[in-house]
Specification:
By secondary structure, the protein is α/β, with parallel strands linked by helices. Helices cover 27% and strands 20% of the residues. The two termini are 17 Å apart. The structure holds NADP nicotinamide-adenine-dinucleotide phosphate (NAP).
């Protein structure tokens, strides 16, 4: 795939107005060529100075262009993976697509809505939370064998509970189990701890990063918090400007 050339004199209207991005072009850029091959895609928005939150939430960073990519990536995935910290912080209601997105999924052989899979060790999640009660597709909770038994039983009433690992969630096993359940295309929506622990086992195939035109300052987290992960290079698949926002897509280089 060839990276877009960034030319300041570019007269593309999407450079001036984030809402002017062509949804069909965005879809084409993020389409999954081989849906059978397991693939972990991670999506984040960051400020220019590396903050993953604005006033404690990611929503203050994104704009219409970020939202278009966010919605497109959701439409394309088999399952949405998210850390319990993000569910507790951001709310996370049920996933409901537009009629057009549902029609696209059905026409492409996918169920109407992907499930959400929540990663949690402590299982400090309320079964009455909208992520469960308003879900269009029964969610998954991914945990480990030492998670509290009572919480596990309570959550089993509203979600399928996957036990992956003994004392913490084994992400490699988790991704294998998701593939076995028919979810090889995984979209991780954060947060930084989950992203970091996925990096630590070298599980991340792709990072979609929206660079928001904001100098956030403050002490918000970076998109990844995993001191144990080794640095690795990624390959730029595209850099798509939308107004002052930059939509970046990076892929893990294929093995030599
Ligand atoms: N900028 C963005 O695009 C973006 C995206 C998402 C989130 N955020 C922001 O990030 C913040 C939340 O991030 P976070 O790092 O605190 O939370 P997080 O990564 O969403 O979730 C962390 C939690 O996931 C569970 N977990 C992750 N790996 C695990 C493992 N190997 N074994 C067992 N459990 C595991 C644990 O849940 P338990 O504690 O339940 O055991 C852990 O506390 C919020 O402020 C949110 O707004 C920003």
């Amino acid at each position: 795939m060839t990276a877009a050339v960034l030319d300041p004199a570019d007269s593309d209207p999407a450079r001036l107005d984030p809402a002017a991005l062509d949804p069909a072009d965005v879809l084409r850029r993020y389409l999954i060529a081989d849906r059978q091959a397991p693939h972990l895609r991670v999506n984040f928005v960051s400020s220019l100075d590396g903050a993953a939150t604005h006033d404690g939430l990611s929503g203050g960073l994104g704009d219409a262009a970020d939202r278009l990519v966010f919605d497109t990536l959701r439409m394309l995935t088999d399952v949405i993976l998210v850390g319990a910290g993000t569910v507790r912080a951001e709310g996370y209601g049920g996933i409901r697509f537009s009629a057009e997105a549902v029609a696209w999924r059905l026409a492409n052989g996918l169920p109407e809505h992907p499930p959400v899979a929540i990663v949690s060790g402590r299982l400090d999640l309320d079964p009455a939370h909208p992520v469960f009660t308003r879900a269009a597709t029964r969610p998954l909770v991914v945990t480990h064998a030492q998670a509290p038994v009572a919480a596990r039983e309570a959550l089993a009433a509203v979600a399928d509970v996957l036990v992956c690992g003994e004392a913490s969630v084994d992400h490699t096993l988790m991704l294998r189990m998701l593939t076995e359940r028919g979810y090889p295309q995984v979209l991780c929506e954060g947060g930084p701890s989950l992203f970091g622990s996925l990096l630590a086992v070298d599980a991340v195939d792709e990072l979609c990063l929206t660079l928001a035109p904001l100098l956030e300052s403050g002490s918000g987290p970076r998109v990844s918090t995993a001191p144990e992960a080794s640095p690795r290079r990624m390959h730029l698949a595209h850099a798509l400007p939308a107004g002052d926002t930059l939509l970046l897509r990076y892929l893990k280089p294929s093995e030599p």
